[in-house]
């Protein structure tokens, strides 16, 4: 069988918008074993830890250059009262996590523990405030507690709890999913709340807040338009609002229904392609919401933040249905690689994205075994690692004069070859995915405006898309050297086996 051939023109000397490192952000909610049993094992644990924070998890995430971490939710954020999570641990009141499993939590992981985690990770904190069940004063006090120096009631309280200097916390979410678990509000109701909460979340000293309003669910474009109207009139009348600097968007890849999302590891070819088509839809959604934002903000001063994305499957058999624990296959990794290609193309408006979630929940980077304590890196983790040099790099436009191969999926069409590229510090990184399960592809890279030297390549693939890593076989899917990259008269020829993700790196010559 002849491989499919794709011609791609890459102008190495025409950099585009910078790909914010925050597009590679993460999300840690008080949900299942993400915090307790994932990030946090307690100071008495036999697992090596620092103040209860699991150190092998920290080490693995630092290898990704993790840029930010969103916390404490999610739905949990709008029932979390931060003052219950400060002070001596034995004096902190317990709470019931009504959203996720109806379990009781002891609040041992709170504000100071989260900030210590971010410091260990070298990641910026992104805190979601409680708009649903909290008060304006509660959120205002939290900002003051974390970021103010000098003397004030919250500063004195922070110092009494052992932290003299303020932290730097730029990113603040004004609630979460206000259309759903965050209060079941209308867009107009939430817009008024966002103005209040955003107004009283103050800048202290040189800590300038970047306030992120709780935006739309998937294709709810009217929600985005309602919020954008709060920022100013149509066209060039827009001026940055003091109370809101960005809007969020949530979209999960679910090929089935919310009632039956499909199995994480047992699926057929039709399920696989429906998943890839659902993942590719994020391009349509980002384009739609960005277009509305462009009408009100043509200068692109306001950011779009996709702070929840990823695959969502039925939970693993035998696990708590409220804990959202699922396995992670090569299929999930390809969902991630396609998302990143799309994110890179929208780098002019999309300033942050947060995969859901980092440990033991949904499309996790890391799975920890509660019995053995083993740590497993998922296939999705490896996509993040292979792509990390795109962070803060200038995007490079790729033109496809002959198009790419397409498969019919239900009533739509799926492009089965995806790619993106960037340059930074004299080096170029090219990411390529072949989503086809039956046909390999060869990409002819026509490099213009320069050449690449010291070319190296890696590949992530497996025998079948259902393959995944386990504590017993943690290396089933891992990156390896890819030898099938050859020089041509115009650039490079890259072979993409079936269901594979490949990165090519080189120095600008």
TrEMBL record:
The residue ranges of the Alpha-L-arabinofuranosidase C-terminal domain are: 307-500
What does the record give as EC number? 3.2.1.55
Instruction: Note the Pfam families from the entry.
Output: Alpha-L-AF_C, ASD1_dom
Note the Gene3D superfamilies from the entry.
Glycosidases, Golgi alpha-mannosidase II
Keyword Hydrolase present in the record's keywords: the answer is yes
Alphabetic keyword roster: Carbohydrate metabolism, Glycosidase, Hydrolase
What is the catalytic activity of this protein? Hydrolysis of terminal non-reducing alpha-L-arabinofuranoside residues in alpha-L-arabinosides
Keyword Metal-binding included in the entry's annotation: no
Q: Which SUPFAM superfamilies match?
A: (Trans)glycosidases (SSF51445), Glycosyl hydrolase domain (SSF51011)
Quaternary assembly: Homohexamer; trimer of dimers.
Protein family membership = Belongs to the glycosyl hydrolase 51 family.
Q: Mind telling me what this protein is named?
A: non-reducing end alpha-L-arabinofuranosidase
Organism (species):
Sphaerisporangium dianthi
Q: What is the lineage of its organism?
A: Bacteria, Bacillati, Actinomycetota, Actinomycetes, Streptosporangiales
């Amino acid at each position: 069988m002849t491989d499919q051939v794709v011609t791609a023109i890459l102008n190495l000397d025409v950099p585009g918008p910078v790909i914010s490192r925050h597009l590679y952000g993460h999300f840690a909610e008080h949900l299942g074993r993400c915090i307790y049993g994932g990030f946090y094992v307690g100071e008495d644990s036999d697992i090596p830890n620092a103040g209860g924070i699991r150190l092998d998890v920290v080490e693995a995430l630092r290898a990704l250059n993790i840029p930010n971490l969103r916390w404490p939710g999610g739905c949990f954020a709008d029932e979390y009262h931060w003052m219950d999570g400060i002070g001596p641990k034995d004096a902190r009141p317990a709470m019931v996590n009504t959203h996720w499993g109806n379990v009781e939590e002891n609040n041992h992981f709170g504000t100071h523990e989260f900030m210590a985690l971010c410091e260990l990770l070298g990641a910026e904190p992104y805190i979601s405030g409680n708009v649903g069940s909290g008060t304006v004063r509660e959120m205002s006090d939290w900002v003051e507690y974390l970021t103010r120096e000098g003397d004030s009631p919250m500063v004195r309280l922070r110092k009494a709890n052992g932290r003299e200097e303020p932290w730097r916390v730029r990113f603040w979410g004004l609630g979460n999913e206000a259309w759903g678990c965050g209060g079941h509000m209308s867009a107009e109701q939430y817009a008024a709340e966002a103005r209040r909460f955003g107004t009283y979340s103050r800048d202290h000293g040189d800590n300038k807040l970047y306030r992120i309003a709780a935006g739309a669910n998937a294709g709810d474009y009217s929600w985005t338009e309602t919020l954008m109207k709060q920022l100013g009139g149509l066209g060039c009348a827009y001026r940055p609002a003091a109370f809101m600097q960005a809007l969020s968007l949530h979209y999960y890849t679910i090929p089935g229904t919310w009632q039956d999302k499909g199995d994480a590891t047992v699926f057929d070819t039709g399920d696989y392609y429906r998943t890839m088509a659902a993942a590719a839809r994020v391009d349509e959604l980002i384009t739609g919401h960005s277009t509305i934002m462009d009408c009100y903000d043509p200068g692109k001063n306001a950011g779009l933040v996709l702070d929840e994305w990823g695959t969502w499957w039925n939970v693993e058999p035998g696990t708590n249905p409220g804990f959202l624990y699922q396995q992670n296959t090569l299929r999930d990794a390809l969902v991630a690689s396609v998302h990143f290609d799309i994110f890179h193309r929208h780098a002019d408006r999309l300033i942050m994205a947060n995969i859901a979630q980092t440990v033991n929940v949904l499309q996790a980077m890391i799975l920890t075994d509660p019995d053995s304590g083993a740590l497993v890196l998922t296939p999705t983790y490896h996509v993040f690692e292979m792509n990390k040099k795109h962070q803060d790099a200038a995007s490079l436009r790729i033109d496809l004069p002959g198009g790419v191969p397409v498969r019919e999926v239900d009533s739509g069409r799926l492009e089965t070859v995806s790619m993106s590229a960037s340059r930074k510090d004299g080096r170029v990184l090219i990411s390529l995915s072949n989503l086809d399960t039956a046909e390999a592809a060869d990409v002819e890279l026509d490099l213009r405006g320069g050449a690449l030297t010291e070319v190296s390549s890696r590949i992530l693939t497996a025998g079948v898309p259902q393959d995944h890593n386990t504590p017993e076989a943690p290396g089933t899917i891992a990156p390896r050297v890819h030898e099938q990259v050859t020089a041509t008269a115009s650039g490079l020829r890259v072979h993409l086996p079936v269901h594979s993700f490949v990165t090519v790196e080189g120095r600008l010559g």
